[in-house]
Amino acid sequence: MDTVMSHITHFYHLSAPDFINFSTGLVNMSPWTPSYTTSDLIAGSSVLGQALIVNYVTALKMRRLAHTASALFSGRHPIQNAIIPGGVSTLTSTTYPNPYQVGTDYDAWGPFNLTETKTKFTNILNQIRDFIDNTYIPNVVTVATSTTPNFVSFWTQGFGCGNFLSYGDFPMNATGNVLLIKRGIATSASTSVGAFDQANIVEHVGNSWYDYPALDAVLKTNGRHPFDGVTVPNMKSSADAQYSWLKAPRYGTAAQVLEVGPLARMFVSYLSSDTGQTVTNTFMTNFGISGGSPYSVRTLINAVMGGTGGGLNRPVSDLISTLGRHAARALEAKLLADACAVWNGALVDNGQAFTYKKISKMISTGVGLCEAPRGALGHWIKIEGRKVAKYQCVVPSTWNFSPKDNNGTSGPVEQSLVGSYIGTTDEEKVLNILRLVHPFDCCIACAVHVVGPDGKEKLKFAIGPDGRPANIEKVE
């Protein structure tokens, strides 16, 4: 549900303002102003503009409903407190525990009645599915096919690197070997999906404000695998090439640049030979998919990208574009929302909720790969003496917003800007760059640092158990 919520929020609250002129009519008010005003914007006072603004507000309700639905099982949302490493901290039951019963074994029951909770979840989920099918996806289609103002040109801009990585996610069977979102690597010219091995990931820092030990000449040139990764800030290098706090993740000996995110997941899943896994369409009444019928990722993409029933009338290859990224995100929101209905229906009472794993005293390593809303998320950990000795992450925005690597090759977002038309006036340039970049859904707070020109630390923070700064020390 978190991914579904994130996709709805992204389109309406982060990207829709790139296409609407909020300076006229009833919308000349916060939070939509101030805004850029260029000739190729949907008038906020027009019928379409007003409809999109109403849906902007309705999308806030959908965001709240998604949080509520998740909290039914996770205890609260966001930042769940019932989902923990190894499983969940609570059980489900067909009965309610009696809080006043002496000697009650509360571990024998869940805190809620599963049948009732599943019903509540279904009622909320169906509101979200209806919004996705009959508002969100049609709005994306309307904007993506608009010729007055003309947004069609964005189908041929923002191509990027043309290479895609998906770690795969969402097991659809008991053994976990069938995934709804497929795993692998694909290129724009692919007709099938290539295998993926996390051992082939390396990170370059030749153009980043970090350094690798000088003695590791080979690792410094070829990049380090996250297990060998170090994070040593270095702003005093004489290399003028440094310009980012992000490292540059690359894949394989050829240092392949890879895009991650909804487009990558949908494209890899579309090309996968294992496309038979289906979910059921319920609320979508257009694009040629009948209500109540099963569909796969390939079926869904073909239906909406094609011209049947008011679709986009674009070849699937056009997904690799600025507008294609918006379309892929909307289609994935539908896929996962429909899958949530499947998973909710499969929940059973009094099942195993937690698997205990003893932490070894010996040196141990582990890898965790999953698909976050923004894309492929990887964690690499080394444990010594039951304590964390090293922890390295490669997050989605590191893949997409990476700087040039040691070979001088730009990351996916940088490549998407190359050759794209950004206009002539200052406002056009700013707005069009935002339109090209926003579909990647950046989150680079971890790559924004405040430092002095000498590269020295200015403040040190000690964080307490409650997550608040317990001590702030000024560095002289």
In short:
The protein has 476 residues and is of the alpha+beta class. Helix content is 31%, strand content 15%.
Characterization of the model:
This protein has ten helices and 17 strands. With 476 residues, the chain is of the alpha+beta class. Strands 13-14-15 form a three-stranded antiparallel beta sheet. The protein has a two-stranded parallel sheet with strand order 1-2. Helix 2 runs antiparallel to helix 3 and helix 3 (114-144) packs antiparallel against helix 7 (322-346). The longest helix has 31 residues, at 114-144. The model is unreliable at 106-110 (pLDDT under 50).
The chain-level structural class is alpha+beta
Question: What is the CA-CA span between the terminal residues?
Answer: 47 Å
Number of strands: 17
Report the major sheet.
Answer: 3 strands, antiparallel
Strand content: 15-25%
Quick check: average pLDDT? 86
Quick one: overall form?
globular
Strand ordering within the main sheet: 13-14-15
The total count of helices amounts to: 10
Low-confidence stretches: 106-110
Portion in helices: 25-40%
H-E order:
HEEHEEHEEEEEHEHEEHHEEEHHHEE
Please compute the radius of gyration using only Cα atoms: 24 Å
